[in-house]
From TrEMBL:
Domain Heterokaryon incompatibility: 2-133
Pfam families in UniProt: HET
Tree of life domain: Eukaryota
Name of the featured protein: Heterokaryon incompatibility
């Protein structure tokens, strides 16, 4: 039972170090940001993220794992699509969308359009793998 993470790598040279099972691991800062947002202080969360679960130094393993990516997203309990840090207007718009209500909306229509444009400009929407990750996820 795991959560698959769909995110944008960002700059492959912009790295940070995290600890996994007590060992240091270098990952992109965008992945670290996504993991920080996913963190649950009340329970352990099993997350599958390609930048951690696939040995990025081994081209043979990467080739084999890429062929299995569809199954990773199909069998995940759910998938989290991480669009980035966001901004207050975008966060408010997403809250409205998720609640299926626009009653007492804290932002007007012009701000909604700006927020929606901000969300849709996320690099995630321009990734090659987006279709597979989105369609195959539960």
């Amino acid at each position: 039972n795991y959560t698959a993470l769909s995110y944008v790598w960002g700059d492959a040279n912009d790295l940070t170090t995290i600890s996994t099972d007590g060992r240091p691991l270098r990952i992109t800062t965008s992945l670290e940001c996504a993991l920080r947002h996913l963190r649950d202080t009340k329970r352990a969360l099993n997350v599958w993220a390609d930048g951690i679960c696939i040995n990025q130094q081994d081209e043979t393993e990467k080739g084999r794992q890429v062929q299995q990516m569809g199954r990773v997203y199909e069998t995940a309990a759910h998938t989290v699509i991480f669009l980035g840090e966001g901004n207050p207007a975008a966060n408010s718009l997403l809250s409205i969308i998720l609640s299926h209500s626009d009653d007492d909306s804290p932002i007007d229509d012009e701000d909604r359009i700006k927020a929606l444009n901000y969300i849709l400009q996320s690099p995630w929407f321009y990734r090659v793998w987006i279709f597979q990750e989105l369609v195959l996820s539960k």
